[in-house]
Design brief:
333 residues; alpha/beta; TIM Barrel; 8-stranded parallel β-sheet; 13 helices; 8 strands; 9% strand; globular
Amino acid sequence: MIIDVHGHMTAPDAYYAWKASLLAARGSHGGKPPKISDDALLASYQAPHPSFGNVSHMHHLDHAGIDLQLLSPRPFHAMHSERPTRIVEWFTAETNELIHRAVKLMPGRFGGIAGLPQSPYLSVEQWLPELRRAVTDLGFVGAMVNSDPFEGTEAPPAMGDRYWYPLYEALCELDVPMLLHSAGCKYPAREPYSLHFIQEETVAVWSMINADVFARFPDLKVIVSHGGGAIPYQVGRFLPSVVRTGVSYLDKLRKFYFDSCLYTQEGLELLLKVIGPDRVMFGSEKPGTGSQINPDNGRWFDDIHLLFDDIDWLDDESRDKVFAGNARQLFRL
């Protein structure tokens, strides 16, 4: 079995047209979402899409043998830094509704990871009603958290800052994991959003370790997207801190889980060796950025299950943990 903890939603064009209208009118025409039928929502998952390599969302999952995918919002659409804040709240709530409906319409194929209305112009406490609604009323099993709600326009509070404590408390109370995944970036010339993801995740991991967040919130569950940003691959920069602190940096790092959303075998092997298979979860972000054919071998770049197959030293027990066991335990699936 393969459980993919890093998948993003698909939706009909009417959803994106509504978003454009919200941005254009800044909410002055109200926040009523479009009427999207069940048939239209199902069709969006079955229809070929140019962003997905001209095949459908479901084709990608079936082709890769992904049995269950946890759906979260498309991060670069989150528009957290937009104003007025009401359009962020409206758009987030409807996004979660569409994910919930997809889960219900295709039982056993999807689970829900909630988006949060992470406007930096709201308090963190004001994000939490939607988190509680998604988990308690909609049955979502986790939440996606953006470490930079300003989307590159200002420096956000570090993830170890007390600013984030109300969110950590709520996640622990609800007993759901956090998928750490940055969102959009408004300075693409300097920092395209794919690079912004990696850099924000790197800074977030360092900040949470440096602030000893897990000592304050021992029940907090965090999955870091994209293989942990740069941290697992630059861990040698931090290992000498054991001399000063007396605590292994690797032990601190293993408080996190890391997804496998890396598109090379070499990257996956390094992650597994540094972190260990018991802290790695299968994540493909499929379909998404990697849904293009690699001209060198004819595979989809995001066919991560095939990269695991190519790692001949990974034993069956470890492979089972990565593919399903770790996710089943953490998400209580």
